[in-house]
## 1
Amino acid sequence: MTPAVLHRLIVAVSDDVIAHADELTALDQAVGDGDHGINMKRGFDAVRADAQATAEKPLPEALKAIGTQLVMKVGGASGPLYGTLFLALSKEIAPDGSNLPAAFGKAVEAVKARGKSQPGQKTMLDVLTPVQTALAEGGADLRARLPIVAASAAEATVPMLATRGRASFLGERSVGHMDPGARSTALMVATVCRVLED
Amino acid sequence: MANVGIVIVSHSPKIAEGAADMVRQMVGDGVNLAYTGGDPGGGLGTGVESILDAIDRAWSEAGVAILVDLGGAETNSEMAVEMLDDERRGRVVVCNAPIVEGAVMAATEASGGSTLEAVRRTAEELSPQ
């Protein structure tokens, strides 16, 4: 991956998360403590500010820089969770990115351990896991397929009952709302695929 | 041997400070004590950077026990522990205990010179098994 492409990816993902901050906050007001959009915006403001310097690093170092910014700046539970995703990915990924499916699988395992959670509990894992499966399957149409897989997986969290995270305090009242973490994950997947498609 | 230090991590700076006040009044100055609350933007929440700073302020060679309130405080505290250097990482624990009662019980145990494991056990006796 060239620094130019990496730079486009960082800026596009940051801009999309920032642009959707109000939507993420609204989702989080329904099932959580209403800070997901604000927290993610703060984290990605910091990531975006460093985009130029980060894009010039080798891929593993760039992912590490992004993960560290998210851990330090996001706050809430999503900071360590998204931070862990990027930090674990930075440890596993080959400099040329060729082992992405395997590295992504390890990173998803790290998120499960950090959140002490499993898929089916109305969290970001409900998007990360199907995305991981699709990545492992591969195929020529992967970039077209992944955003659809991610979006429908996020949609599938609507009827779920939350048993982890803040939403679990709501019990049955968490049913009927999309999980904000699932939504932000799907958003990032779609943006990455769109940029790589161009 | 120094006593185990105590760190209090709440989403609310007021709760963190209030719990620390109670510990000081009930246990005195025999243990290192630090608290932190609020997210990096100044709202309710917790942040890894401020938790690392609190661990540093409460640092003791005997280790540090962290008491937390809700989910994000625990996740951020565990993340902070992992980011410590190798020498310190094994000497910091996040207790599964109610924040106020846990902090008071942990500090009481710590002030008697108990080990980190004993301090954690005493705090966690408060949690339903």
## 2
Amino acid sequence: MSLIDHNALIGPYPFRRLPDPTPQRLIAEMDRLGIERAWVGHVPSIFYRDVAAGNDELFAALAPHRVRLLPVPAVHPAFPGWPREIARARAEGCPAVRSYPSHYGFAASESAARELAAACADSGLELVLTVRLEDERQRHWLDTAAELIGADVRALVRAHPEVRLLVTAADRALVEEVHFGATPEEAARIRWDVSWIWGPPEDHLAQLFRTVGRERFVLGTHFPFRLPESALAKLELS
Amino acid sequence: MNRAAPAPLVDVHVHFLHDRCGRTDWETLNARRLAVGERIGITLHVGSILGSFGHTSPTYFPSPDDVTYGNEAMRAIEAAQAQRVRGYTTVNPNFTEHAVREIGIGADHGLTGIKLAASRRAGDPLLDPVCVLAAEHGVPVLHHVWQHRRGEVAGQEISDALDLTELAARHPGARFILAHIGGGGDWTHSLRALMDVPNVYVDLSGSGVDRGMLELCLECVGAERLLWGTDLTMDTGLAKLRALDAMGLPAEGLAAIRWKNAARIFRLSAAVFAAATQDLRPKT
């Protein structure tokens, strides 16, 4: 079976050293773990004001590796020129775009978010959201962006009837809150990665497979923040 | 997965449940831990029970009655699973006489280690009688730690590595285990604090699987003071085990982390590991 990592990133992080967060290292890890392809975002784009410049860096870094590493550029829907980033993502054949409401300073319920959802739906791009980058208990004192909460996800999935969401780094409680706080039609447009869900003995992932449905979950390693072995280990043990 | 244990493996941070924890699935969870342990290749689980885990007194401030019941339950599990389970004796140092008595009862049953939760800050003198007994019995103290204490949190009187080093300095004859380096908080703070503290070991357990953590553990503490463990998430323990394998450590370093350090500080007999060691022998 061909494995696809739906939640990988490259690039340095301002608050902690991430060992070798490069495309080359990502590919080496994928080879080691039997992962065929990865959807790849760009860590600095989370912190740049001008996200387009970050996307330039992402496309350039992944250019030699496009067969296996699919760029997932970032979009800041409250910053000038953002529709061009949507158009570029579509032209480049990207499967999705990423956005970070807390880091970019817009509310998931406001008009900018609705416009982003509509643009993604119209372009056939999945919208990738990130609940957290790191455990909140270890975050740097300057790293104050709020974690995504269930209300944010619900607002975005309701923002457009055809928007599709991939929510990464969510835990069991958030998945359940959103899944059962959505209509079946809305829930069917949300996928979740497994990077932050507990395995055995509490078996949160196995429980979610039973209650939410295995088909709603995708492999996500959260590289370069987390050991990529972790996502595979919990799938294996669940 | 390679189901056969390639070498002994000791999980130094395990929790079991009992019938008064308020969970109807307690037996299932205990059994699940042991079953997953077999898949991972765990030779020995060293576990504790923190009172009633919040059911009749707070997890991190367990009442004396709950501590006693939890320790009795832990010894019952140890007796029933003698080949693969050892138990810490849990104490709440705010109840000094009770804590001393519990350690004495534990010693009557072959004390393996002492578990301190977050009932009293690690540097507090109330912990001294517990540590004196740990040194006398030659067993380690596993201390719950919040990696870098930057304030108070609800439900715990948290300690960090600096608090633990203060205690360790007062008791150079005792060995301490800083709990779950991946269990929440800034692990870089803990590891830098422990660089020159030879009687504090680090357990690798916790749900945190940050890249860079294992490298810094080796840089700051070294393989000779690292202990493998899982705590509440066995999948993350397996991930760290595989990451250690992939790092290309010398075989002796890997063996130290997997089991030899634990065998030394818990004074585990060779018989505990005989079966696992036999697995390494060439099949004829």
